[in-house]
Amino acid sequence: MRSVIDRRQILQRCGCAALSAGLGLAWARYAEAAASGPAAAPPMVPREVAPGCWYVEGLSALGSPANQNFISNAGFVVTPAGVVVIDALGSPALARRLLAEIAKITPQKVTHVVLTHYHADHVYGLQVFEEAGARIIAHKAGREYLYADTAQLRLQASREELAPWIDAQTRLVAATEWIDGRRELTIGGTRLVVQPVGPAHTPEDLAVFVPATQVLYAGDLVFRSRIPFVGQADSRNWISSLDKLLAFGATVVVPGHGPASTEAAKDMRLTRDYLAYLRTSMGQAARDMTPFDEAYQAADWSAFAHLPLFQAANRMNAYNTYLLMEREAQ
Question: Which three-class secondary structure state does DSSP give residue 256?
Answer without folding.
Answer: strand
